[in-house]
Amino acid sequence: MTVLSPFARHAAFATLAMASVLEPVHAGPATYTIDPMHTYPSFEADHFGGLSTWRGKFDRTQGKITLDRRAGTGTVDITVDTSSADFGLDKMNEAARGPELFDVAKYPKATYKGRLTAFVNGAPTKVTGELNLHGITRPLDLTINTFKCMPHPMFKREFCGADAYATFKRDDFGMDSGKSYGFNMDVVLRIQVEALIDDTSSRDKVALAQPQH
Q: pLDDT by residue for the chain (213 residues), tens digit each?
């Protein structure tokens, strides 16, 4: 049996300790809370069959995102306050809250729930999900244009951001105001979102870890 000298034992322990530090962190799912100050779903809708395009956004949004880049999985759960629709015109905002459009007295919330899919190099490129709007739920998939995660310079925690879009027909959700006047029912939905990781102890689990190929 070989007996190691005290120096050799110390070197061996130091090597093992260094190896444990350098061992990659095991990736796993983490949860992120949407930052309402940097998340504004916006929309584009036709006015009089191509005469012009109305644009607006929702000012109040909340939700959660889960993400596991190594596994290529994740979820999205977003709730929008429909009374916060903002067209940049007070009278239009008032009309949008009424029964002809969002009817916020009956349907104060819109929700989107889905799964992050089609990961490329650890980043999702699509969301497969369902939109609940005006009391009706229908499938709606989002295409993710950009996706990025990085350490937050102030909070010293990881945060992620994305830009996504989809197109749907508003009359599929019972919102057909203007259809008899020739309004196109297509609506372009765009979502800019930023979300901060919930648990600082799990910050290395997901986006800061390199995905496996």
A: 445 454 444 444 443 444 333 333 435 789 999 999 999 999 999 999 999 999 999 999 999 999 999 999 999 999 999 999 999 999 999 999 999 999 999 999 999 999 999 999 999 999 999 999 999 999 999 999 999 999 999 988 999 999 999 999 999 999 999 999 999 999 999 999 999 999 755 545 444 444 333
Question: How far is it, in rounded angstroms, from Cα 78 to Cα 95?
Answer: 24
CATH number of 28-202: 2.40.128.110
Read off the tokens for 71.
């596994």
Output helix, strand, coil percentages for the chain, rounded to the nearest 5.
15, 45, 35
CA dihedral 143→46→135→166, nearest 10 degrees, is 0
Domain ranges in the chain?
A: 28-202
Closest CA to 171 of 162, 160, 183: 183
Rounded to whole angstroms, the Cα distance separating 134 from 131 reads 10
Q: pTM value? A: 0.80
